[in-house]
């Protein structure tokens, strides 16, 4: 077959990559169609406004009569232009193989969360990080703390279920809105055919519990409780200062429309241990819970590079991480790092017992630091380039 | 037919003439030189058939996967050749029976009758044999994707590209084939710029056709499609000519299941090494994670050794965009490799091939609105119901069938030339 024409070598993406945020340029251009113009205050550039307009249109075409559609599209563009999150308008966000329902009062799943969840699943399924799956006697037991929409446990469930693996997944949250939505998300994805109704040996459930209350968390570590294979959490991690000061670190749309409970650790949770800041409080608590549950893998999302280093350093001193592998993952853990992205870091352990030795921690992927991964080494598994604790 | 005829049935006739005609067979074969099948092809068929028989006897002694596979591939040639030879020898027999001055008049009349039928049959069998020899495209059984791009000439060619896109989509719908729009990029997503015909100015689109065998059905659609019509924007009513280009690429099933080609197998010719692919995302500056709620999901992947690159931003999920981009990239690379292989085969026959050379980049089809006509230039095929063609109706089936038949004939011609070149080479040695 002949390639008759030269493919445009510079794709539109390529052309737009260096041209972000040219809103001043756009303001002077009066020929922009009105719907796009409505979106620009939020979307900032034409390319992403075009994409959002297409998604809004597709949504309206499915849900509204053709006669009313144009007016509805314009109204939705207006709302979006004023900063209402696209996912609250459309009601959904894709997450892995799922369609996650989104409603105000519950945090919208982020792309990075999707990336590391999929990467984790890839490690479990193709790299035996919890051992060969067919050698696991009971089921693969997973707990996701601070579950929100339930996106993480639902995707884990869907993915393992599809491979006919026995699996028991639990999602935990303190917010009734989140729990209700997580349950709705299970139903919705079963209806959509993305999840099959749980079969014998497969279960998924959502439970109300406050991470900071021993009495509510105890049920997960009761004596006789089976082994936990995986514990994940994307806890609130934004400091009150960053949240309330207008530094621009928190996007306006997030601050105005997403629930504070999901994003900012409350003041009354007490003081953080040495080496951590107040808004890192969830991590010390989650490590203590991990001590009780003793999962083979712990995966925690973190907010930025500084927090990642603080928490990773804290991990090296925490008994849970003793003789476990620690890794830092970037936004896209399965994309090759750029030339200027570090692939490992030496954490100065302030722990005197370690005799002042630093601990080398590998950094995976490309982007900003986004998660801390702690894994129990498995003797039989191929360790590859992964470094074991020294 | 004479009243006494019924007792002679055809099989009896055959039995009857057997001892009589044996001696003529050899001479008669040379006499039947009016075959349309090129001698080089016949030689090839005989060689393959001999190979088949060898394989069969090997397989009887001991089973081997490779031998069984090869035997399966060429069994249709052996079968077609046997049927063809059979028919040839019947014709020879009948001819010599008729040539015999002593044969019974009644018998001769039946023989004449049968000869006519047999000769008709031979034409069919010849075609069949040609078909069985025609190189089977190894991608034929795969699903496919069609890439649409407008040619130069602004909006009019973009509008027409959209018409082609809709044409194939409707065709698939009518045939009950599963499709999926991998990419649809209009110059105007707002839809404020539709043509009078309701077309959008399409810049690039990729349509995936998921049914196995779609590649075989659609591969002849690749090439330059030309439209001649008065654009809705043309005030003076002048006819414009513009073009759109189509690529038809093989699509690899996710796991390689259900197909003999497994692109995930590093041994496969179509394997793309992940580590040779660069993935780029829209890198957000500043804070990430929970701090922001970005909807940008664009991704670009580049195969470093070939420079082939695909960007994708159609879907809201970056993971999904990446999957789709990967699919397109893989198909393009496989296609490139195949082109390379074809070029090598072409070199072999180029010594012979001069007049018949296919010009690349030439238009394959014209859609003429004023004359209500669709012409396939390769097949020399015309049809009048343009509307039905553009709506993906049965008229389009006919045009496509004509192109496939053309392709088949061309493949057989190419094969003949290749065989002749090969056989000449051997003779020199
Ligand atoms: C950042 S959201 C994460 C949601 C979801 N896992 C995701 O990745 O999209 C944090 C979640 O933690 C919940 N949460 C906040 N404080 C909590 C607490 N003390 N105990 C349990 N859950 C809590 C919030 O309701 C919210 O749903």
UniProtKB/TrEMBL annotation, chain A:
Q: Which UniProt keywords apply?
A: Methyltransferase, S-adenosyl-L-methionine, Transferase
GO annotation terms (biological process) = methylation
Query: Where does it sit, as one GO cellular component term?
Result: mitochondrion
Which InterPro entries does this UniProt record tie to the protein?
HemK-like, N5-glutamine_MTase, SAM-dependent_MTases_sf
Q: Which GO terms describe its molecular function?
A: protein methyltransferase activity
Query: Which CDD domains does the record cross-reference, listed alphabetically?
Result: AdoMet_MTases
Q: Which residues form a coiled coil?
A: none
Q: What is this protein called?
A: S-adenosyl-L-methionine-dependent methyltransferase
Q: Which organism is it from?
A: Emericellopsis atlantica
TrEMBL record, chain B:
Cellular-component GO terms for this entry: mitochondrion
BP term (GO), one: mitochondrial translation
- Keyword Protein biosynthesis appears in the UniProt entry: yes
Any one GO MF term held by the record is:
translation release factor activity
Q: Which Gene3D superfamilies match?
A: 3.30.160.20, 3.30.70.1660, 6.10.140.1950
Q: Which Pfam families match?
A: PCRF (PF03462), RF-1 (PF00472)
Q: Which InterPro entries match?
A: PCRF, Pep_chain_release_fac_I, Pep_chain_release_fac_I_sf, Prokaryotic/Mito_RF
Similarity comment text for this entry: Belongs to the prokaryotic/mitochondrial release factor family.
Give the protein name, as stated in the record. Answer: Prokaryotic-type class I peptide chain release factors domain-containing protein
Source organism per entry reads Emericellopsis atlantica
């Amino acid at each position: 077959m002949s390639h008759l024409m030269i493919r445009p070598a510079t794709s539109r993406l390529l052309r737009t990559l260096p041209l972000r945020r040219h809103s001043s340029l756009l303001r002077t251009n009066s020929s922009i169609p009105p719907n796009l113009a409505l979106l620009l205050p939020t979307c900032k550039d034409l390319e992403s406004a075009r994409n959002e307009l297409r998604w809004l249109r597709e949504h309206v075409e499915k849900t509204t009569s053709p006669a009313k559609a144009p007016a509805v599209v314009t109204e939705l563009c207006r709302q979006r232009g004023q900063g209402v999150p696209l996912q609250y308008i459309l009601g959904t966000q894709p997450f892995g193989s799922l369609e996650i329902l989104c409603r105000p009062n519950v945090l919208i799943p982020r792309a990075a969360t999707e990336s590391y969840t999929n990467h984790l699943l890839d490690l479990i399924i193709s790299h035996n990080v919890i051992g060969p799956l067919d050698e696991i006697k009971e089921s693969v037991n997973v707990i996701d703390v601070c579950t929100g929409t339930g996106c993480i446990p639902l995707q884990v469930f869907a993915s393992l279920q599809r491979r006919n693996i026995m699996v028991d997944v639990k999602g935990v949250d303190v917010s009734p809105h989140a729990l209700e939505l997580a349950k709705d998300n299970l139903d919705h994805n079963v209806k959509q055919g993305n999840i099959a109704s749980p079969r014998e040996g497969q279960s998924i459930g959502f439970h109300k519990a406050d991470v900071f209350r021993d009495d509510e968390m105890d049920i997960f570590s009761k004596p006789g409780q089976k082994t936990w294979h995986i514990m994940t959490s994307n806890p609130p991690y934004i400091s009150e200062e960053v949240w309330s000061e207008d530094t621009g670190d928190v996007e306006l749309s997030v601050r105005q429309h997403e629930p504070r409970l999901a994003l900012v650790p409350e003041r009354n949770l007490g003081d953080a241990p040495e080496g951590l800041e107040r808004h890192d409080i969830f991590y010390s608590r989650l490590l203590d819970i991990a001590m009780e549950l003793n999962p083979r893998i712990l995966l925690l999302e973190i907010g930025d590079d500084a927090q990642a280093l603080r928490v990773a350093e804290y991990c090296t001193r925490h008994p849970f991480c003793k003789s476990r592998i620690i890794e830092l993952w970037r936004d896209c853990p399965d994309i090759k790092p750029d030339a200027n992205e570090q692939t490992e870091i030496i954490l100065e352990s302030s722990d005197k017992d370690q005799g002042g030795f630093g601990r080398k921690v590998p950094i995976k992927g490309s982007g900003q630091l986004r998660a801390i991964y702690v894994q129990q080494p498995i003797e039989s598994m191929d360790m590859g380039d992964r470094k074991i604790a020294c | 037919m004479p009243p006494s005829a019924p007792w002679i049935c055809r099989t009896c006739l055959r039995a009857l003439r057997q001892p009589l005609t044996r001696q003529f067979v050899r001479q008669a074969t040379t006499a039947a030189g009016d075959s349309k099948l090129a001698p080089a092809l016949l030689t090839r068929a005989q060689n393959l058939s001999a190979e088949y028989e060898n394989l069969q006897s090997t397989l009887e002694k001991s089973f081997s996967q490779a031998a069984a596979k090869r035997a399966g591939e060429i069994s249709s040639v052996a079968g077609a050749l046997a049927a063809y030879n059979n028919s040839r020898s019947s014709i020879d027999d009948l001819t010599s029976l008729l040539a015999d001055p002593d044969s019974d008049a009644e018998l001769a009349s039946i023989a004449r009758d049968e000869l006519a039928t047999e000769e008709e049959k031979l034409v069919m069998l010849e075609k069949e044999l040609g078909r069985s020899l025609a190189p089977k495209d190894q991608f034929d059984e795969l699903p496919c994707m069609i890439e649409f791009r407008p040619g130069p000439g602004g909006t009019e060619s973009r509008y027409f590209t959209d018409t082609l896109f809709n044409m194939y989509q409707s065709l698939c719908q009518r045939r009950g084939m599963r499709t999926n729009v991998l990419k649809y990029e209009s110059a105007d997503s707002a839809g404020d710029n539709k043509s009078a015909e309701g077309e959008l100015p399409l810049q690039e689109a990729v349509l995936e056709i998921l049914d196995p065998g779609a590649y075989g059905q659609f591969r002849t659609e690749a090439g330059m499609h030309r439209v001649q019509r008065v654009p809705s924007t043309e005030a003076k009513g002048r006819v414009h000519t513009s073009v759109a280009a189509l690529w038809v690429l093989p699509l690899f099933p996710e796991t390689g299941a259900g197909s003999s080609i497994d692109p995930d197998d590093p041994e496969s010719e179509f394997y793309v090494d992940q580590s040779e692919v660069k993935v780029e995302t829209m890198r957000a500056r500043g804070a990430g994670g929970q701090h922001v709620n970005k909807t940008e999901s664009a991704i670009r992947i580049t195969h470093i050794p070939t420079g082939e690159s695909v960007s994708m931003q159609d879907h809201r999920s970056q993971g999904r965009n990446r999957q789709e981009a990967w699919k397109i990239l893989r198909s393009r690379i496989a296609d490139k490799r195949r082109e390379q292989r074809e070029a090598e085969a072409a070199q072999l026959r180029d010594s012979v091939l001069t007049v018949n050379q296919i010009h690349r980049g030439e238009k394959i089809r014209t859609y003429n609105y004023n004359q209500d006509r669709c012409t396939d230039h390769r097949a020399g095929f015309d049809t009048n119901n343009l509307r039905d063609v553009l709506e993906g109706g049965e008229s389009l089936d006919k045009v496509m069938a004509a192109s496939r038949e053309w392709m088949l004939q061309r493949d057989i011609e190419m094969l003949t030339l290749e065989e002749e070149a090969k056989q000449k080479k051997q003779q020199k040695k």
